[in-house]
Design brief:
heterodimer, A: about 350 residues, mainly alpha, 20 helices, about 0% strand, B: about 90 residues, F1FO ATP Synthase, 4 helices
C-alpha cells in the first residue's frame, strides 16, 4: 500500500527566521557610495563615521587601547567575529550546520595567522590582534596556541585534529605549502560534511562554494600564468572540487594572452573582460577585486532564486566580509599614503 | 443514488460548510508560519518594522474569509437548504 506523504511544510520555514533577520541586517551594511566618501575623509573622520554605524560598540570599547588605523582595524575584526557568532547563535538545525561549515574558513585563517606570526617572530599579543574567532576554534584555544614558542610547537598543538595532516607539510623554510594544504583541507572537509547531508540547502551551499573555488583558482592562474610558472607547479596550487576545475587545470601554464582568450564565454568573463584584455601591468589585483565582487553578486543572485535557503545568509556573510576588507583597505591605504585611485582599484564593490 | 433524506442532506451540507472554513484556516496557518518566523527575524533587527510585519503576517488570514463565506452560503443561502429550513 502506498504511504501517504504529506508535503514538508516545515522545511523552508526553518530558514524563514534567519533569512528575514539577515535581510534586515543587510540594510545596515555600509552602502557602496559611502566608500567613495570615505576616501575623501582622514582616518579620524572615518572612525567617527564608523561610530555612527554598527561598529560603534567595538570602536568605543577598543578606543582606550588603540587609535587611528589600528583602532579601526581591530574594531572591524571584532565586529566581524561578533556578527558571525550572532548568526550562529540565532540559528538552529540545518542553517546553523551549514553556516558553521562555511565559517570554518576562519579557523583556517586563524591557524594561518598564528603560523605566520610565529614564523616571523611576532609576540602572542601581536598575533591575537589579527585573529578572528568566528569559526569553531575559540579565543581561549587560539590564545593558548599563540603563546607557543615556535611554529613546530604550534603544529604539534593540532595533533589529533583534522588539521594535523595539512600542517605536517611544513618544511621549515616556507609556509606556502602548509597554507595551500589548509585551503584544500577546508574545501575537502566542507564537501564531505555538506555533501553527505544530501539536503537541498547543502546542495545550494556547495553550488556557491564550487564557484568560489573556481574564482580562487582563476586568481591563482592569473598570477602564476602571468609570471610564466610551469604548468605542473601551478596545478599543484589549484584547489580541487570547483565546477570548472578540469578546464582551469588545462589552462595552467598557458601563455598569458592565450589563457585570457580561453576565458571568453565563461560566466565571469563580463566582469573582467575590460581589464583582462588591457595591457595594464597591475591588472591582476584589479581582476581579483572584480572577481570577488562577482562572487558577492553571484551569491545574492542565487538567493533570489532560492529566497528561503542558506543562500541569503551566505550572501550576507560574504557581503559583511567584503565590507570589513574594504574599510581596512581604505584605512591602511590612507595610512600608507596611497593615492585614492589605487585604493579604489583594490576595493571590492559589488 | 439520489439523496432524498432531508436529515442526511443537512448533515452533508454542515460537513461541507465545516470543511470550507476549516481547510481555509489550515491553509492560512501554513502560509502564516513562514511569514511569522520571517517577521520575528526582521523585528529582532529592526523594531520599527513591527507594524508592517504584522500587516504582512495577517494577509493569509484574509483567505479564511472566503472559506467562511462559502460556509455561510451553504448553511443559510443555498436554495435547496433554505427551502428545507422552511
Amino acid at each position: 500500500m502506498p504511504v501517504l506523504r504529506l508535503p514538508k511544510f516545515g522545511k523552508p520555514v526553518k530558514y524563514a527566521y534567519i533569512t528575514g533577520r539577515v535581510r534586515a541586517m543587510k540594510t545596515k551594511l555600509i552602502p557602496n557610495e559611502m566608500y567613495g566618501r570615505m576616501l575623501g575623509m582622514d582616518i579620524s573622520d572615518i572612525a567617527r563615521y564608523l561610530e555612527e554605524t554598527q561598529y560603534k560598540e567595538e570602536i568605543d570599547l577598543l578606543a582606550k587601547d588603540y587609535s587611528g588605523a589600528e583602532l579601526i582595524e581591530h574594531a572591524t575584526f571584532a565586529n566581524l567575529a561578533k556578527t558571525y557568532r550572532k548568526l550562529l547563535d540565532v540559528s538552529i538545525d540545518e542553517p546553523q550546520f551549514l553556516m558553521l561549515e562555511y565559517l570554518r574558513r576562519w579557523d583556517v585563517w586563524n591557524i594561518k595567522t598564528v603560523l605566520r606570526g610565529k614564523f616571523y617572530g611576532a609576540s602572542d599579543a601581536e598575533i591575537m590582534k589579527y585573529v578572528v574567532p568566528a569559526g569553531e576554534l575559540g579565543t581561549e584555544f587560539l590564545e593558548g596556541v599563540a603563546k607557543k614558542d615556535s611554529v613546530n610547537e604550534v603544529i604539534s598543538a593540532f595533533d589529533g585534529t583534522d588539521f594535523a595532516e595539512a600542517l605536517a607539510k611544513y618544511d621549515g623554510k616556507s609556509l606556502a605549502s602548509v597554507e595551500n594544504a589548509l585551503d584544500k583541507l577546508y574545501y575537502f572537509r566542507m564537501e564531505r560534511a555538506v555533501g553527505g547531508t544530501l539536503s537541498v540547502g547543502g546542495g545550494l551551499l556547495l553550488k556557491y562554494v564550487k564557484r568560489e573555488i573556481d574564482v580562487k583558482n582563476l586568481v591563482t592562474l592569473f598570477r602564476m600564468n602571468k609570471a610564466g610558472i610551469e604548468a605542473a607547479l601551478i596545478q599543484e596550487n589549484l584547489i580541487e572540487g570547483g565546477k570548472l576545475s578540469e578546464d582551469l587545470n588545462r589552462m595552467a601554464g598557458q601563455p598569458y594572452a592565450d589563457f585570457v582568450r580561453s576565458l571568453e564565454g565563461y560566466p565571469f568573463w563580463s566582469a573582467i573582460s575590460d581589464i583582462a584584455t588591457s595591457s595594464d601591468e597591475d591588472g591582476v589585483s584589479r581582476i581579483e577585486s572584480r572577481l570577488k565582487a562577482y562572487l558577492v553578486r553571484y551569491a545574492w543572485a542565487l538567493s533570489n532564486y532560492h529566497p528561503l535557503s542558506i543562500l541569503p545568509v551566505l550572501g550576507y556573510i560574504v557581503s559583511k566580509e567584503t565590507e570589513v576588507s574594504n574599510i581596512r583597505k581604505v584605512v591602511r591605504g590612507k595610512e600608507a599614503g596611497l593615492s585614492n585611485e589605487l585604493i579604489e582599484e583594490q576595493m571590492v564593490v559589488a | 443514488m439520489a439523496i432524498t433524506d432531508a436529515g442526511v442532506m443537512y448533515g452533508l451540507l454542515a460537513v461541507g460548510a465545516g470543511l470550507a472554513t476549516g481547510l481555509a484556516g489550515i491553509g492560512a496557518g501554513v502560509g502564516e508560519q513562514g511569514i511569522g518566523a520571517a517577521v520575528v527575524g526582521v523585528v529582532a533587527e529592526e523594531p520599527g518594522f513591527l507594524g508592517k510585519g504584522l500587516f504582512l503576517m495577517l494577509l493569509p488570514e484574509t483567505l479564511i474569509i472566503f472559506g467562511l463565506a462559502v460556509s455561510l452560503i451553504l448553511m443559510f443561502a443555498w436554495t435547496p437548504f433554505a427551502a428545507f429550513m422552511q
